[in-house]
Structures are given as C-alpha cells and as structure tokens.
Amino acid sequence: MKPPPFRYARPDSLGDAVRLLAADEDAKVLAGGQSLLPMMNFRLARPSLLVDVGRLPELSELRREDDVLVIGAAVRQRTAETAPLVRESCPLLGRALRHVGHHQVRTRGTVGGSLAHADPAAELCAAATALDAEVVVTGPSGRRTVPVAELFVAPYQTSLSADEVLTEVRVPVRPARCGFAEVSPRAGDFALAGAAAVVRVDEREVTDVRLVGFGIGGTVRRLPEAEGALRGTPLSRTPVAAAADAAADATSPPDDLHADPATRRAALRASVQRALEQVTHD
Fold first, then answer.
1. Is 102 exposed, middle or buried (0-12, 13-18, 19+ CB in 10 A)?
2. Is 23 helix (H, G, I), strand (E, B) or coil?
3. With respect to CATH, is domain 57-172 assigned 3.30.465.10?
4. Please, where in the chain does CATH 3.30.465.10 lie?
5. Residuewise pLDDT in 10s, the chain (282 residues)
6. Domain with CATH 3.30.43.10 in the chain
7. DSSP 180-239
8. Sheet holding 165-172, edge to edge
C-alpha cells in the first residue's frame, strides 16, 4: 500500500524543525518511520508534511551526566540495545529493546520515536515508565521537561503539543534489580500483555518496587496492587505469585480481535511472574 500525498522536509537544525511544525498544524515529526509510515499506508494518519529530524546531530547523542543516562530522541533502538553504556547504566532498557519488533525494525526505529508514538503495547514506553524517566521537548516557547508518567494520555496520544519535538530521554541511574517479560503470538509481534519491573531489595526485603504493565489498556500503566503485594516482603516464590495474581485480578483489558480479556489477564499474570523471577536471580 502507498501513503496519501504528503510534503517532505529535512531541516538542518532543531529550530528549523520547530518552525516547520508551528507553521502547519497537520505536520508530523518523522524520525525512524517504523510506526508512522505503516499508519500512513493504512490511512490511519494523514499528515500534510513530514519533518524529518532523524539526522539532526543534537538528537543523536548518547551519554551519561552524573546519575542520569541521556538518550537523544533520534538514537536508533539497536544502538541503544547494544551500547555498553546503556547495558551498564539501565539494563532494563536493553532487556526491553530485545523484544521490540525485529532486528530490521530496531535498526531504523528510534528511542524517542517509540515514546512519542505512545503505543499502549510498546516495550519502551513500559520500560521508561518503570524507570521513572523524563523526556525533554522543544517547541516555540523553548524547552521543557515532562515526566514519562505524564506523557501518555491515550492510545497513540501524548501530552505534547503538535509543534513540539521530543529531543531527549533522561533516565535516572539507580541501584536496583530489574526484569522484563511479555507474551506475544510470535517473536516480533505486538505483545498480548507484558510487564517491566524495577525492584530495590535491602537485607533481602523489598523496599521499593515499580511494576508496569503494557498491552492491557489504552496506555502503559503502573500495577499498584501487584506492587503492594511485594513491598515489605522477602523476594521469594510466594509473594511473586501473589503479585502476579494481584496484577491480573485488578486489570480490565480490552476485548478485541487479537485476544479476549481472559487471555490478556493470563498473559499479564505470566509476564509479571517471569519478570519478577528475573529479578530474584539478578
């Protein structure tokens, strides 16, 4: 299939990109194109102008600033997946990225593009939420920082304005154990459900936990009932099973052509259990 007609621009600077977006309310940012272009082919998106920011050098940096990992929005997913800096600073990101599409998709897709796309079944959205990350965005009024917890508002919809560009992702680097798991029909398919876990253990007791589920509703979301079942307990088989059950019981997933609610709840239960089992062996 072919997309509807559109204009294309590749600005030389971030400022030029913002000006192009501000001048056309139907313009869209293009980074890797692995999500936007298929939506255009299916007529689910009809931008009048694509503003290509994928080659802007200021969006392609990967660095660490003290206790923060900074990932430029245009950093390719495969680059982040294989980077020693990411693996050492935030291993959860590397684990999540291995589940994103196929190798070819990750070679073109970008970290910022996945977050800006806000797919409720996106692995990176879940991992960024579990890691308490922030994104930096730039618009006509300058730069601002948005917690990822406030970024996703509905399926494929964020809190960003149409004339803003997501420029970097900032991930706190904190000592913690992590786990990531999902259930999908085939490798590379969208997950029926999945879970990302970040757990802190002090003297064998869980002192802090962030569990995030994805593929179970309109956005990725925290799983407070499962977190409560773990907090203050030793990290062992019994509380892990209780947390998995609590996550599934408190979830009301959609009924669609891919899976019914019971199947998604079962997939979430399995994902939470597997992610936490990774944590116990971390």
1. exposed
2. helix
3. yes
4. 57-172
5. 688 899 999 999 999 999 999 999 999 999 999 999 999 999 999 999 999 999 999 999 999 999 999 999 999 999 999 999 999 999 999 999 999 999 999 999 999 999 999 999 999 999 999 999 999 999 999 999 999 999 999 999 999 999 999 999 999 999 999 999 999 999 889 899 999 999 999 988 999 999 999 999 999 999 999 999 999 999 899 999 999 999 999 999 988 888 999 999 999 999 999 999 999 987
6. 7-52
7. EEEE-SSTTSPPSEEEEEEEEEETTEEEEEEEEEESSSSS-EE-HHHHHHHTTSBSSHHH
8. 62-65, 68-72, 165-172, 134-139, 142-147
Check: CB of residue 62 under 8 Å from CB of residue 80.
Answer: yes
Helix axes 261-280, 237-249, angle to 10 degrees: 150
**May I ask the CATH class of domain 177-280?**
alpha beta
Q: In terms of CATH architecture, what is 7-52?
A: 2-Layer Sandwich (3.30)
Can you give the length of the chain in residues? Answer: 282
State if pTM tops 0.90.
Answer: yes
Ranges of CATH 3.30.390.50 domains, the chain: 177-280
Which of 255, 252, 256, 281 minimizes the C-alpha distance to 268?
Answer: 252
Locus of tokens 């869980």: 206
Which phi and psi angles does 76 have, rounded to 5°? -65, 145
**Which of 50, 95, 57 is CA-nearest to residue 73?**
57
